[in-house]
Write a structure and sequence with these properties.
Length: 264
């Protein structure tokens, strides 16, 4: 089953359902930088025993970890090599059985297993997949997704901004709140970057605008607000035109009006 969630509250609820055993398989797909990994870590810190795999995972290692963490929740975080490997996907399909009984996982190839790892075992493990890319056209992916819930997580920038309120210093959040209408694409990463820079005593307000894909005019507007917060609009407009003599005054006024309206 596939669903699209646009709220962090809905994603959190789905993850909690997973922890309670509702889904044998939960796939969470989103663009990078939305905090899905950190959200899962926060929820899983109370789980005394679980398996977390990330990066490159071979079939033998995957089978071994399934055995070693028998009956425990399993998190696959950004393991594209695993998802692209037919053997690994077959193992996943075996684990994520929709039956009420424990799943039976087998290793019936000639490849040698580590000492003590059997060629077959039963497990009640449930699997959570965190990914930035799910190939729905791949027949093996489709057969796997049918065993659980596939969540497309697509929060709007206003929702990402709202969620960031609990993650960063109020000064940083207010800065983003002021200039959010200018941002085309938003993720949690620039919030976290600003938080780290602030913690190191660096001037994050000067650096951040250059990392957000803003135009030169927008960057200049923000720099003038930082340098001359008490100047009048006319004074700032004159400073803007002095820095960018080829720009039309309407450029500055458009930016100002956009921020005053607060349109996202």
């Amino acid at each position: 089953m596939q669903v699209t969630y646009t709220q962090y509250a809905d994603l959190t609820e789905a993850l909690q359902h997973f922890l309670h055993g509702v889904y044998p398989l939960l796939i969470v797909e989103s663009t990078p930088g939305l905090g899905k990994t950190e959200l899962v870590k926060d929820l899983f810190h109370t789980i005394p025993r679980h398996c977390w795999l990330s990066g490159r995972v071979t079939p033998v290692l995957f089978y071994t970890m399934l055995y070693q963490y028998q009956d425990c929740p399993l998190v696959l975080d950004d393991v594209q090599s695993l998802l692209d490997d037919k053997q690994c996907v077959e193992l996943l399909k075996a684990v994520c059985s929709t039956s009420d009984q424990d799943s039976h996982v087998s290793w019936l190839t000639k490849t040698t297993l580590p000492e003590g790892v059997p060629h077959q075992f039963a497990t009640s493990s449930h699997v959570l997949v965190l990914t930035n890319r799910w190939n729905s056209t791949n027949i093996h992916y489709g057969a796997l997704a049918d065993r659980g819930l596939h969540v497309h997580f697509q929060p709007a920038k206003a929702e990402i901004h709202r969620y960031a309120h609990s993650l960063v210093d109020p000064e940083i959040w207010q800065w983003f709140n002021q200039y959010l209408p200018l941002l085309r694409d938003v993720s949690l990463r620039p919030y976290v970057l600003a938080q780290k820079m602030q913690g190191l005593g660096l001037y994050w307000q000067h650096v951040l605008p250059r990392t957000l894909g803003l135009s030169e005019g927008e960057q200049c507007y923000i720099a003038l607000e930082l340098a001359s917060p008490h100047s009048t609009i006319d004074e700032k407009l004159n400073m803007f035109l002095a820095k960018y003599p080829d720009m039309h005054p309407r450029t500055y006024l458009r930016i100002h009006e956009q921020l005053q309206k607060g349109d996202l």
